[in-house]
Amino acid sequence: MEEFAGGPASPPPARDSGPDRGADRPAVAEAERITKRYGETTALDRAHITIRPGETHALVGRNGAGKSTLVSILTGLQAPDEGEVRFAGTPAPRLSDRDAWRERVACVYQKSTIIPELTVAENLYLNRHDRNRFGLVGWKGLWRKAAEQLEAWSVDVDVRRPAGELGVEQRQFVEIARALSFGARFIILDEPTAQLDGAAIARLFDRMRAMREQGVTFLFISHHLQEIYEICDTVTVYRDARHILTAPVADLPQGELVAAMTGEAAGLREHAVRPPVPAETPVVLDVRGLSDGDVYQDVDLQVRAGEIVGLAGLGGSGKTELAETVVGLRAPQEGTLEVAGSRPRPGSVPESLAAGVGFVPRDRHQQGLVPLMSIADNATMTVPERLGQAGFVSGRRRDAMAREMINNLAIKTPGPDLPVSGLSGGNQQKVVMARALANDPRLLVLITPTAGVDVRSKEFLLGKVEEIADTGTGVVIASDELDDLRLCNRVLVMFHGRVVAELAAGWHDHEMVAAMEGVDLDA
């Protein structure tokens, strides 16, 4: 299906000639029949996209749809296993010819590539400094050239200023200007608004429109669908590594766009739905008026014993920061937080543990594991008081506790002494879960608990969460993965720091995605 008929749910802002712009000229970039595999995983399956001159083309899809893999292929970071990439009708350069790639395409990533210790001018012309006859950098000439480059694209930044002093918005503009300085007129923007406020987003879009009039073409990747309708001419949807549709934005209702992303237009999930927890059940988490500046505001949240409550939202929604506040990694600016009747000191992980909180962080590699330590040490590090007296750890007691955890969570290992780095991703995540359960928590908080694990481990971990809840532990799951949220009794959806919806168990996929995207399907 290449396009849907119908009009948008709400009229998008007026755009100029739209997707017909440049139709009589070769496509700026084309990817045809692109297949990319990583072992048994197919990241792209005969996917395609065509970006026309002068348009802003959106690429959307859920996590794992293949967007990042396509970007890496379009920018020459890796080659497809099958298929072809062309720029202006000619085949893409060899991967080794980086200068030729920079002349054709550039990507501004969500995570900045600006070097903060260098000045703006040095970042603009890194490794391209003009030198005099003595081999020294001609700083005046560099500053002048950098200032001319920024002025040409209406970027108002002092070229002598250290880049580390720039805000997110300014860094993005500098990165765009740097890409344009190589000669590229095709720019990929990967989640450019994730860290911007409303005013900065409006300025970014104004700058994009102005650059487009100067001959720049954009591929715009975003989870926020209202931005697609505001700035883009054409949208392409990927799902499960495949191209699903390409259509003019003005001809595609938001509800149909969400349906294309999820593969579901209506209908309940087929598996069992968790019933509501009785109102008389004791509360194990009571959050009142919790706020942390612009990160999240005025959140009320109660979780009862045996209840699984989801916190859904995209990047920048505040769900992760709220979950980290509950476990003591962050201190709120306002509000109160009680766990099983006690009030741990804000921002104190030890007091949160003592109150009965268990925690699975969002990134097991950076936050969840010490790779060179053993499974036993990783799994028991939060409960040293159970392993010995007077600050001494009994290896026998530690290993016995670890073996019990290994059996309980079906961790595939020859023994508790194996370094956790020797485990597969799914088994590593089970070790993180084991540590979260080591203190017999009254409240278990999990952030994207199944990220980067295989299907079998994912099913096991989610099943274990349900088992834990059935024993009377309250559970909070902060995630944007629909499968993580399906086992919840109810889900609070956050958008730009506020709770905007509460969905009872039995929600439709398209309903959840729309709420996370800030789309009102009834509008």
From TrEMBL:
Keyword Transport: yes
Entries under CDD domains matching the protein: ABC_Carb_Monos_I (cd03216), ABC_Carb_Monos_II (cd03215)
Taxonomy, superkingdom: Bacteria
Chain spans, region Disordered: 1-33
PANTHER family to which the protein is assigned, alphabetical: CARBOHYDRATE TRANSPORT ATP-BINDING PROTEIN MG119-RELATED, GALACTOFURANOSE TRANSPORTER ATP-BINDING PROTEIN YTFR
Name of the molecule in the record: ATP-binding cassette domain-containing protein
Keywords: ATP-binding, Nucleotide-binding, Repeat, Transport
Domain ABC transporter: 29-265, 279-521
One Pfam family of this chain: ABC_tran
Record-linked InterPro entries: AAA+_ATPase, ABC_carbohydrate_import_ATPase, ABC_transporter-like_ATP-bd, ABC_transporter-like_CS, P-loop_NTPase
Molecular function terms from GO: ATP binding; ATP hydrolysis activity
Source organism per UniProt: Microbispora catharanthi
